[in-house]
Amino acid sequence: MATNTEPKLKEKLEEGLSTASDDSPEKGPKITISLGEDIDFVCETKPDKSPDKGKTIVAYTAYKEEREEPFKITLHDLMKTLDASMADLLPSGLKDKSINFKNLMVIYRKEQKTSKGEWLFVLDLDIATKIKLKSLPVVGDLISDEVGKEELVPSLRLVVASKAFSIKEIRVLNDKIPDKEEEEEEEEKEKEKEKEKLIPPMPVPKKVGTDESEAKRSVRKGLSLSGKLGLPDAAKILSLSISPQQAEEEQEELAPGGEEEEEEVTNSNLAVWFDIDKTFGPFSLKQIGFQYEEQNDEAEIAIVIDAVLKIAGLTLSCDDLGVGISLDDLTPSFKISGIGIEYKNPSIEISGALLRADKEKNGIKYTEYLGLASLKFDLAGKSFGVSAIGAYAYYDGEPSLFLYAVLHVTIIVDPSFIITGFALGFGYNRYLKVPSIDKLLDFPLVAEAVKPTDKKFSDDSELITKKLGEMDKYMPISIGSGFVAIGLKFTCFKMLDCFALLTVALGDDFEINLLGIAKMKIPTPAKDSKNTSCILNMTMLLRARFSLSEGVISIEGQLASDCYLLSPDCRLTGGFAVCLWVSGPHAGDFVITLGGYHPLFKKPAHYPTVPRLGFHWKVGDCLSLKGEKYFALCAHAIMAGGRLEANFKLGKLWANFVAEAHFLISWKPYYYEILVQIRIQAGFGILGPVSLGVQLHLWGPEFAGTATFRIIFVKVTVEFGDQSSRLPEPIDWESFQSSFLPPAKSTAQGSSTAADVCSVVVNQGVTKQLSPATTKEVAFVVNPKELELVVNSAIPSKKASYQKNTQDTEPLPVSNANTDFGVRSMGIKKEQLDSSYNIKITRKTKAGNSQPVDRNQFRFIPITQDVPTALWGDAKVKEVTVKGKKSERILLPEANDQQFVKNILSGFRIVPQIKEDACSTNSIDVKKLEHDTYCINNVYAWQQMTAFSGVSTDNEARTTAINNNIVSTNTQNKRNNLLQSLGFNLTDDVKLTDSVANSFVIAPQIKA
């Protein structure tokens, strides 16, 4: 709606102040602003009691009860007539917005000493429907009529201030608002009472008479929302600033309104919460919130409450229950974010919670409902319990949900094995994220079964929000995905409490996880015993995983943080992992570790993190002990080691002891290196440290090494054994072949001495196998359209060729393959190694000879993979003198050497060449292909036939006729010709004699 900004409201107010008398109030001038309809501003000017202080003019337009339609105003355009800079601070949801209102008032004041105008703009909103507690969802029908009939917020207004006003200043401005005109008969009755204002004044606390309280800020500079809570005995002023504030203004809180001067006020971004803590019968009101929200330039005022309703043992709590008022039409819409419920009696306990959340993902907005529930009851003398979590959302046109429930029940299978619970869950259009093993106890599907919370959902909204946030973290919406989960909770020998959970994630990322938790305490504390001390407390976490997308098979185990031995101060740590990568970028890699890796080993990102096997024991205030060890086997080396540390401190006296050993072992060539060192230090105050240490460095298998001794500043090194044996000798081809290449195949002609390096597999397209796989030549029937052969070699290749005929070959493209590799364990460098892959395809002729197939009939797609550097890495050699003779030795791999040679050619995928169409059909007019059906009359000529009637008197004669004719030569010839044409084998499939006639109870009759 276009707004005529003339006349300028500020100029007219200035003019009214200048023309008004200082002696008495004066009405005028009359101001009219056109906003699609005429809005008349009536002005009254009031000087202060001391005229030299200042004057105040009040311009207002009062709501007429007889008016059918409310006033409408474009707030931004009207504000520009007062202050253009203030109008620009309006939120986007209020700019160019036509707002319904019933009262509009501008209080403009100018003090003589400053001659600067200050003003307060008040707009009373015309809400379409009264907001009552009875209208609220869920709890409305349960609230008493006495409380429910009251309006929740009787008045709601927009306030714009040119400056921040204190309580004292607001009292002055309120006093300038004109009084409401009363009838003469009522004037006498109102003399004893304070006169009612024509426009409702700005709310302020009751006057207590102290200057300090009167100086508190009541209205902030800029735009704010103001409302009044209408509940009996809970009169509160709701105020929320929605304009950008200066830093110094943000630090100072507004003075509270209402009956009490002090109250708890919690501020957040465009929202403010007030503590109420009032009870109206069964209805308890905890907090009320005032919020301003914008979405896509659509503005809404929200009034929300946190309330509890208690009726006959049932407790119902509501989170963010309230009403939203759109500023487009000021029509309220009721809403609720969460519900909590609790019911308890001697035989049953029920508690639950439901949360509604508006979310956005990938630019798509949706609403999600998340819930928790718990049920405990007694049946036939046994206790049962069920807890469940779940969620539902409709996202991008698809439903998405998950549900997980745990049944707590005791089933004695055997005294040594007792089932204590079951778990079952599923998800549709949900992806299940299973956390790493160290966070397993926080995984919602495990936590619900292992350590269900004892808190009541109706009393703890933070618990609900936390749990539902975890569900959203571990089970997010993913269209096309799903999962199932099944679990078992049990105890063994009443000492070991276990829970096992099997999860299967479906969809693009197919994954299977087997999760396990085992807890043990020795001795096991008695039930209901206050003495919970024990000498051993263990919690073992286990996870077995298979991921199709990552191509990994892994088993991990780890001690939880609560494990200890002998004393809670003696903490135990440790873990293990076995991982094998069968596909993907890490195919061929593996790792086995117990306690982690070598200290200098830089763990690849895809390797699991495993804590050291060890303990940390603080023995009293003076002594602490720490020990750890590890073992790891990966593609290029074996690592092992350990460390023992003791620290003592008593006053100024201190001492420590460290002993550690680290092993690095490689194989083929077999080699080991051991580093052992011991260090002792001590001191007293500023004296010291006095240190003593020894380091032992060993290598082999030809045992040798060095020993280094340190005494304070003195260092001595002693060598022993053959120092040149530190580097291993390369192995020969026979050793390499027997150790690292596949063994020779046994054939009908005997065992071959050559390694079975190459393999051929029909990967796709097989329709039938004609001969057993154990024969020399295996025959298949294949579909040429789907045929795919895969050829592989255990020895990587640098080049490849196709055998065109007995003499000529044709190179195959392998441009993307890496050729920088050698045979490290044999001491062969990359430039010394030449390996070639040759492929030959033949077909048998009618004469039984083999004929080469043209290469153009097939496509050859290279297959590359990563191979261990320990086998196929570039050899690093050094020439040394051993016992007077020169010899090449292999340099040892470093702890962080590259583990794999990337992108090495290992074989080919062979598929038939796709031939282009030799020809194409000419275009055909569609009309020539059109057809329709039509009726042809009298096509069939129906004939009358006499029904067959059997005769039972000549049964013996019919049997004799069948007996004589069924094996006659004429009948047999006709029958054999018919059966042969149908594909029957007369010798195996047909056996018919004249005795068949005796098989009939009644011989068949045929009409002649």
TrEMBL record:
Residues forming the DUF6603 domain are 276-772
Composition-biased stretches, type Basic and acidic residues, lie in: 208-217
InterPro entries (UniProt xref)? DUF6603
> Do you know which Pfam families this protein is assigned to?
DUF6603
Q: Which residues does the annotated region (Disordered) include?
A: 1-31, 179-219, 241-266
Which superkingdom? Bacteria
Q: Where is the composition biased (Acidic residues)?
A: 180-189, 247-265
Name this protein carries in UniProt: DUF6603 domain-containing protein
